[in-house]
Amino acid sequence: MSKKLKISNQVEVRIPDPEVWKDFKEFVKFKHETNYGVTGSELQKALKYHMAMEGWKNYPNMIHEGMLVEKSHAHSHKIGMADRILIQTIYKEVSPGAIIHFKQLGRWLAGECGLTDRRTHKSHIEVLVYNKVLEDLYNDYTEYKVLIPEEED
Questions:
Q1: Of 12, 20, 40, 126, which shows the fewest CB atoms inside 10 Å?
Q2: CATH fit for domain 81-146, picks 3.40.50.1100, 1.20.1330.10, 3.30.590.10, 1.10.10.10
């Protein structure tokens, strides 16, 4: 029995405001350091988010704390070993309330954990944001505020 492959749709539309498309492509390039192979998935996320915000079908159920979450593809927010090492490094190097740049967090991940891929850095930093170790100040992967550690029960 052969599996049917899902074939993606090629969509061609006109966007009335060319500045919006230009900004979207810049956003994707900033986030992924390329537009190749990722613009479609980012556009799909944007469309899903818009439908969720408009209350269309089951899309509102995909929104959790202002973020689009697709259960089958969602990353775990569970703190792993590299995350623990990064947390220890953060609190050893700076005080709560300090501002840290993404590049510094990336250097710590590379130096302490051997993780050099920027996409990996983003996913580990997202875990720390989700778990309230860091606050993403501008929601653009640039600067983070170190939060006061919560007491464990």
A1: 12
A2: 1.10.10.10
